[in-house]
Amino acid sequence: MKLVEAIIRPEKLEPLKDSFLKADIKGMNVRQILGCGNQHGWIAHNRGSSVMMNMLPKIEIKIVVADDKVEDTVKLIIDTVRTGEIGDGKIFVKPVEECIRIRTGERGDDAL
Amino acid sequence: MKLVEAIIRPEKLEPLKDSFLKADIKGMNVRQILGCGNQHGWIAHNRGSSVMMNMLPKIEIKIVVADDKVEDTVKLIIDTVRTGEIGDGKIFVKPVEECIRIRTGERGDDAL
Amino acid sequence: MKLVEAIIRPEKLEPLKDSFLKADIKGMNVRQILGCGNQHGWIAHNRGSSVMMNMLPKIEIKIVVADDKVEDTVKLIIDTVRTGEIGDGKIFVKPVEECIRIRTGERGDDAL
Amino acid sequence: MFNPGDIAFVAICSMLVFFMTPGLGLFYAGMVRRKNAINTIMSVMFVCGLATVMWFVFGYSLSFGPDAGGFGVVGNLSNAFFHGVSASEAGPYTDTIPGALYAVFQLVFCIVTPAIVVGSLSGRMKFSALFVFVTAWLVLVYYPMAHMVWGQGGLIAGLGAVDFAGGYVIEISSGISGLVACIILGTRKGYGIQSYHPHNIPLFVIGGAILWVGWFAFNGGSALSANELAVQAIVNTMIASAAAMLSWMLIETVLYQKVTVMGAVTGAIVGLVSITPGAGFVPFEAALFIGGVVSPICFFFLTKVKEKFAYDDALDAFGCHGISGIWGVIATGLFAQTAINPVAHWDGLFFGDTRLFAAQMMALAIAVLYSAVMTAIIMLLLKKVMTIRVSPEEEALGLDISEHSEEGYPAFSGIDQ
Amino acid sequence: MFNPGDIAFVAICSMLVFFMTPGLGLFYAGMVRRKNAINTIMSVMFVCGLATVMWFVFGYSLSFGPDAGGFGVVGNLSNAFFHGVSASEAGPYTDTIPGALYAVFQLVFCIVTPAIVVGSLSGRMKFSALFVFVTAWLVLVYYPMAHMVWGQGGLIAGLGAVDFAGGYVIEISSGISGLVACIILGTRKGYGIQSYHPHNIPLFVIGGAILWVGWFAFNGGSALSANELAVQAIVNTMIASAAAMLSWMLIETVLYQKVTVMGAVTGAIVGLVSITPGAGFVPFEAALFIGGVVSPICFFFLTKVKEKFAYDDALDAFGCHGISGIWGVIATGLFAQTAINPVAHWDGLFFGDTRLFAAQMMALAIAVLYSAVMTAIIMLLLKKVMTIRVSPEEEALGLDISEHSEEGYPAFSGIDQ
Amino acid sequence: MFNPGDIAFVAICSMLVFFMTPGLGLFYAGMVRRKNAINTIMSVMFVCGLATVMWFVFGYSLSFGPDAGGFGVVGNLSNAFFHGVSASEAGPYTDTIPGALYAVFQLVFCIVTPAIVVGSLSGRMKFSALFVFVTAWLVLVYYPMAHMVWGQGGLIAGLGAVDFAGGYVIEISSGISGLVACIILGTRKGYGIQSYHPHNIPLFVIGGAILWVGWFAFNGGSALSANELAVQAIVNTMIASAAAMLSWMLIETVLYQKVTVMGAVTGAIVGLVSITPGAGFVPFEAALFIGGVVSPICFFFLTKVKEKFAYDDALDAFGCHGISGIWGVIATGLFAQTAINPVAHWDGLFFGDTRLFAAQMMALAIAVLYSAVMTAIIMLLLKKVMTIRVSPEEEALGLDISEHSEEGYPAFSGIDQ
Ligand SMILES: Nc1ncnc2c1ncn2[C@@H]1O[C@H](COP(=O)(O)OP(=O)(O)O)[C@@H](O)[C@H]1O
Ligand SMILES: Nc1ncnc2c1ncn2[C@@H]1O[C@H](COP(=O)(O)OP(=O)(O)O)[C@@H](O)[C@H]1O
Ligand SMILES: Nc1ncnc2c1ncn2[C@@H]1O[C@H](COP(=O)(O)OP(=O)(O)O)[C@@H](O)[C@H]1O
């Protein structure tokens, strides 16, 4: 099993959820983070003063998938969220040793 | 060392904290996420229209434990948070290579 | 590649961002968590009653770095955020198998 | 002769009605997604500045100045810059308070009306376009409507139709304009699929509470005097809003076995709208009926009709204000009593006289047509000369950042130390 | 003869007092966990609808109508549907304002009172049960209490006891009822262990500020005229609330070396409660004393007594309103002066006359007993005929979702785009 | 003879002005980081308690009591404990309302003024030090300023300078004091680098709306009667604030092509400040000009001047209140008309008379110097005798936890179940 962790633009969450729905990927979880990378943020105006916002809100999506589904999932994400402009985000793949469904106690790929 | 990552129902956080306290597990961290899985969410009524909430608030708990404590921890979590109904959540176990206590610089299991 | 995950005091985020800027570490992401460990929290007063706050707000920083940069990063973090008092936090190092830059599709260390 | 009691009453009512506009901004903002909260507040708040300055410069004159050309449609410019409108002399509309106070009381109504309209356009309109739209709408819709209904020699008043506190001028004009404008503007992306995203219900409640309280001043103050009529209007307003809240809760209970805060407060608001035109004309029992019936009507429009015709009346300016306002002027034609307020020349249909009812229907037709046509012209012209919608990317990102470079809660996460 | 100044004053005061009920909803909501915010707001807001309609239909009549049967306990139904309550004629209670305005001013009091009670029941009561409870409570507790204290031929008034703006009728009746009802309802799960979970202190402050401002109208307006007595009441209200805020801050400083916003605002509120019964009877210096002393008393009850007896008076309706109200009526018996308000037949104990004090004590006993017994009956009956508590699972999940399918901040996370 | 209309008006205005102080607390709190929200609210709210009790005990007397020693600088103690200040007799300052009502109306001004000052000190001052500072500041700055401008035999009034609703007494004194105090206190850590951290703009808007509405009561009520002058003041206030909002939006549009809510509301507020001293003296057109011009002036100070001199006027008490207040008193010297208000002995410079303008300039110099010197003395003394700043660690952690052990949104995350 692998954990596919994607950091994406907030406005891409809805399209990505739709893509997953079509591809029948059901389990995932999502949280809000602040990220900084190559993207520079935007200029805000505070009672006249200009201020640079350097940490931008991003969404982190985590999906645990069976080993053989990793590439498909990665591709699906890239296809859905890529805009080609700085700030598109990153995908990280990490090992997961075990997965347990709390409700039933099932383990391994069955539990996904 | 392993990272035990449990996704649970929000209302189970307090009981789980109590269980941990009893089992003398002290270090952990917690965050709010939105999850979707087999559980369907609930119907909300918005000025008359019914709307389906498909992402549900969940709590993610992370505990890093020594290798030999993983099973106990998993068992403890399952025992405390299982209701037997859809939406009980998942536990993932992931490898952790190193742990450092910032205050002292200690490493490895001592730092937990 | 490794994921360096640091749990720090909220008030140390700004100094840490400055240190990273100086060390030219650009990519990272940040979120708010609640943590409990050896630190005991503080006493709050609620209309007269004293209550113990046992989960404290912490910041979790995640940085994915090439294998050879792990030690430097860890050291930098420790140097910047250590106060020597309980509650300084922890650093966890975890394996990352793959990293993909969504914008370009680049993989591996190049994508960082 | 000035009466300090009346001055005190109308002055304080003006303040409370002024409060309604920011209140509306908060009410609206609570209902939108977090990424559009700033844009929503801004779209409402800027009207406080714009409409006031316009009112002083020429708006009051176009609305309440001497009739221009005798058509009863708009005033002339002889009161521009409050020329002839004084804090020390009574105006042409009432004797016991200064003309300038009357002008201020009318101003606060003029501020809130376009602010209602913008609710229909929420979440996708460029702010620059909205600014131009509101300016044009005040000149082409609001001032003429106010003149026709309340101005000297006004066309609608001439028909014998009555409007105590703004059924035609405020509720119908804003509701109908909202509908027309939102259709021309187009729906938000993903409209229909993902519609439930209020980000802050307590904020919505704060705004709703301010609106509710302000409305007592709105209807009560419309008596322009601290007298029996003001009391009649306040009591009616209380009864109608309460009845509408309860009947909305009843509908929800029957349909879903649950009541919601958004529903209950929406019920109260449509109840307030529905009694606005008749507050100073109908007896108490009628208020109970008017309020009790408005919720099912609106509920039907907010759910079935809106879905069926798929217009994106984002924050329901039409569904809440337009529809309830229409019901309100009809109900006034049904239940008004000359004994309560001799400004109505005839009793309502329910009491056996058809004349007032007929006048109300005629006036309603004029108000609906006039607002619809004028708003359509403004929007279509605007569409020709400037970009009125943000791009799909900007819409997805949220108008707060794209239009204002400002977020609602920048340091709220606790991360941004 | 109607006086426009008085009409203006009482009308505007009614609006500001009406504002207190949503204000109380926000005040309460800020103090609860996020998962119960909607339920808390709903539990308070629906009273605006329910109590108003009931008031119009029969509540006013039961409270202020002619005495039924001569027992001085409740009115008869001759004023049902505001029959004989008119916007154009003075009522039996005052000459300078219309009877309907008096009814409205009394209505806004009647709305806020059950809304206070629900604070004790927060976080575990089924909304349907709460709805029935409030309906029954208004009929069986509020209307009789109002009649006994303020109605024509009322029992408590007949004793010579005085209550300027609602010590017995509002504060004590709601506080005692809250205590009794919360004991019968039972504590929240985990009560005592995990009690500190306000989710939004600024919201609490918004509500607190609205309450504070409204209270000036509450006490001032109770003079029913813009006269010397109203001024006396307003000044006393200001002094007492300020003194109570300072003394609460002092207690916190002594005990914890820190002052809190929740503490300071709570201090102000208990100060406001404490001066309510005596605002139009006591001299300024007494207000300073009454306010200064109420905070330690309440602090003691909120901490020691509540802990010792382990009742879960969730948002302290008893601890804040009941206790301070009791202190307030006692203090009125101590410091009232006939020279300030001849409605009091005798001076207070402090000025050497025991009669008023004795009357106050008797009235207090009646009010406490009556509220306690009636509320107990209602709750015990309710428990027999319907489920009054949510299930432990629903309680853990939060009443917002389980009872209303609505959340306080659905799209706040910024995730739910 | 008392006039109920006047009593009603001044009483209600007092309530609305009182509302401004919590409003200011929310306005300020929305602008700070979440970790300092509680401290900010506390710093403003406690003044409601402190200033009220002080006012009753000796503050009113020092401000409005008979002149002490004939210097026109401060009153004597003969009205301590409101001795001679009665709810049933007119005071020395006006005939149509009771002396105690006048004292209350003046009190609500006295509450809000130090609350403005604390905005400059936000985010780093120990609360205990702030408490002492405000106490000392009221005695040494506010009471004398009020006496000099509005008291019997006051020095500044004696020059012939005029101040309708608090240009010198409130705006300039608080703004200048804020500047001086914040310089002595020192900047926040990291000031300049990381300055954009409002945590809750809707909260800021709620506060701003309360301020805006309250200001109509603030300026209108300063006529102390529901008369022509009150109307003049209200109309001027409306026009000036609207004009200032629009001109702020214009500046932002020109410079950034975007308008912000924080900008627009700030514009409205500086407009309100600017018209405060002249509201009851200048004609409507002048109000348009005064408001239209104040935004560029303040914008320049908030951006260029503040940056250049690097003082950390955290929430811009000086930039908004000081500067606009100064412009306001100058503008009053330019545009006042004796025909509008004969309290001004001469017309303004614009109408050809130099005497009022000269008096205003002299008064301005006195007010600025007096406030600056006194505040400096207080702060420097305080620094000697106690710790006035929190430690750098506490500052980084946030003053909410370090100073109050209380957070703004403890259970908001949804985690803390
Ligand atoms: N090395 C890294 N470790 C962790 N997160 C990263 C790293 N680099 C980038 N990120 C995350 O990815 C997001 C997008 O990065 P960015 O550099 O802006 O995109 P792009 O690579 O497309 O230019 C950042 O906001 C940050 O959250
Ligand atoms: N494959 C997955 N990857 C990541 N998170 C998952 C995955 N499957 C489920 N989850 C998380 O677990 C939660 C519970 O899943 P659900 O399917 O509702 O429970 P159950 O398996 O007991 O029916 C989801 O809300 C989601 O956050
Ligand atoms: N075993 C663990 N697993 C996950 N997180 C932990 C663990 N131990 C500590 N933490 C996190 O680290 C934070 C700091 O821990 P603490 O024990 O207070 O610091 P210190 O070790 O310096 O005394 C905690 O708040 C918690 O979030």
UniProtKB/TrEMBL annotation, chains A, B, C:
PROSITE patterns: PII_GLNB_CTER, PII_GLNB_DOM. It holds the Pfam family P-II. Belongs to the P(II) protein family. It comes from Acetobacterium fimetarium. This is Transcriptional regulator. InterPro entries: N-reg_PII (IPR002187), N-reg_PII-like_a/b (IPR011322), N-reg_PII/ATP_PRibTrfase_C (IPR015867), N-reg_PII_CS (IPR017918). SUPFAM superfamilies: GlnB-like.
